[in-house]
Structures are given as C-alpha cells and as structure tokens.
Amino acid sequence: MGELYQSGSIIIRFYVNDHLPPHFHILTPDDEALVEIATLRLLAGALPGKIEREALAWAAENRAAVAAEWNRTNARFPIA
C-alpha cells in the first residue's frame, strides 16, 4: 500500500495491484472516494467539499508524483 500524501485527516493512498482505470483513494476518518488520475474525477464515493477541493488541488499540483506512485504500485498497468 502506498501512502503518498497526508494533510490533517486527509490521506491519499494507492493499493498494490489495484484495478483500472488508474486511480487513487482519498481517505478521511469518515469518508472515502476513488479518483481517476487522468481526469481527477471522482469515480466512487463522496467527500465533504472542502476536503475534496484540498485533495484534488494537491493532486493537480503533483500529477507527476501521483502518476509515479501509481506506476510503482501497479506496474502491470503503467501510465505512459
């Protein structure tokens, strides 16, 4: 399991050998969402607005690190 980012109660995490499309998980103590890396669109789950905005802003600013962590934890489905 790859934890890439944590700020307060927000965690961005990747799971090894996860399914397509390439995505990451945003976790809080009460919520979870899956976010597609290519579009930064929520695929499943829901988050409070402030948490969603903060996590997606971080992911947008750190796209290279997000893609690299997906490729590290999910080498069978690399992002080109």
Layout of strands and helices, then pairs:
Elements: E1 2-7, E2 10-14, E3 23-27, E4 32-36, E5 42-45, H1 49-61, H2 63-73
Antiparallel strand pairs: 1-2, 2-3, 3-4, 4-5
Please tag this protein with its features:
80 residues; alpha+beta; 5 strands; 31% strand; 2 helices; globular
Described by strand count, sense and barrel closure, the largest sheet is: 5 strands, antiparallel
Amino-to-carboxy terminus distance: 21 Å
Task: Count all strands and give the number.
Answer: 5
Portion in strands? 25-35%
Describe this structure in words.
- This protein has helices spanning 49-61, 63-73, and strands at 2-7, 10-14, 23-27, 32-36, 42-45.
- With 80 residues, the protein is an alpha+beta fold.
- It has one domain (2-73).
- The chain has a five-stranded antiparallel sheet with strand order 1-2-3-4-5, with helices on one face.
- The radius of gyration is 11 Å and the shape is globular.
- 16% of the residues are buried.
Task: Sum this structure up briefly.
With 80 residues, this protein is of the alpha+beta class.
